Amino acid sequence: MSQQSVTDAPQRYHPRLFRSFFQGSFPCSTACRTPGKRLDMVISSGHDMLLDKDYAALVEQHILTARDGARWHLIEKTANKYDWETFLPMITAARRHNLEIIWELAHFGYPQHLNIWKAEFVEHFERFARAMAQLMYDQGVVRPFFTPINQISFWSWAGADVAWFNPHVANRGKELKRQLVRASLAAIHAIREVYPDARFVLTDPLVQIATHPDNPDSKPYADAQHQAQFEAWDMLAGRLDKELGGSEDCLDIPGLNYYPDNHWFFPDRPMEVGHPSRVPLHTLLAQCWQRYQRPMLLAETGAEGNMCAPWLQEVSENIAVALENGIAIEGVSLYPVVECPAWADDRRSPGPLLGLGDPNGNRTLHEALALVLRSQQIKYQKRDQEC
Fold it and tell me: 219 and 209 in contact (C-beta within 8 Å)?
């Protein structure tokens, strides 16, 4: 190997942002699946009752960083009045177990007294974000992480293109995306007034949309739809629709949500696992890295049933390739880390690290997944110690 090729070889990236590389994401969606019927996954997963035990269980599995959510619809039931009864115990429990939390402010839900299409929605969200940050500051929280609005692109599609959940309209996805970007930017600026050093994880799905071999003429449309996954991040960064007020410093940490079904053929045909057109995760990560050159978090990943352990193994191997190629991946977060009904229906999906709570409030550990998790934790620690 020539000296030139050695010099040009990428240096392995060493994660440094979070307390632990492997993390857990608690289900905390508060979407209204139908008007007036809200799904509160903090309750349906039992996390509200098992909060302290859940945090302790993560730490026992050497997971020191997690994603969890404040429930805006409960905190601001009355306009501009904040009841922190549901949130303060989370701060206290996280401190007790020395668990670092990436706090979500809005996960598909918002107070019923707000119209999401109006300017007042942005204004209320800005005030809520500032108040939440001030509360955390007064409680002694340091070096905080936030996700203002979870999965802007997905929410825009599900809520305003196909009317899957709130705001239950169709063909207005781009309009909602712009509104959610406005709200996210307002929240970022408000939080920075309290915490100038706050960090922000901006989540959206990481996907592959490919041209089906039987329909080669669709390639321009497939390519355009593949590129559309970056729209919300581009808006936040001020690269698209600059009038929204985005800037590069607002696109802090892209959070990438990735599952086995995040690959499909244009327009909506699922791509089976093992299909030769399916590109590996490390290639998708490289595309995002080349576009933004920002530290990234695999903010959600997981599979169901017997696939959960092999899936984590596959994801971890791809992450190792990305790190070796110098791509700044700061962590991998398992979702859901506790068992819960699926957010889109009431079907329970087996496979989370921690199962349903028994009558004594104890969750069953998924042994196969825990073994893969621990082996990967040791591998990543060993690699960093060797460098």
Answer: no
Contact 153, 233 (CB under 8 A): no
In 3D space, the residue among 89, 200, 70 whose CA is nearest the CA of residue 131 turns out to be 70
The whole-model pTM stands at: 0.96
111 prior amide bond cis, ω within 30: no
Which residues does 330 contact at the CB level (< 8 Å), separation at least 6?
15, 16, 17, 18, 21, 253, 295, 296, 297
Which uninterrupted H or E stretch holds 330?
strand 329-334
Count the residues in the chain: 387
Backbone angles phi, psi at 181, to 5 degrees: -65, -45
Q: Can you tell me the distance from the alpha carbon of 373 to that of 270, in angstroms, rounded to the nearest whole number?
A: 28
Q: Which two tokens stand for residue 118?
A: 């109006």
Query: How many angstroms separate the CA atoms of 360 and 230, rounded?
Result: 45
Which H/E stretch holds residue 256? strand 253-258
Is residue 61 within 8 A of residue 371, CB to CB? The reply is no
Are 15 and 331 a contacting pair, CB within 8 Å?
A: yes
Q: What are the pLDDT digits (tens) for 32-52?
A: 998 889 999 999 999 999 999
CA 248 distance to own-chain centroid: 20
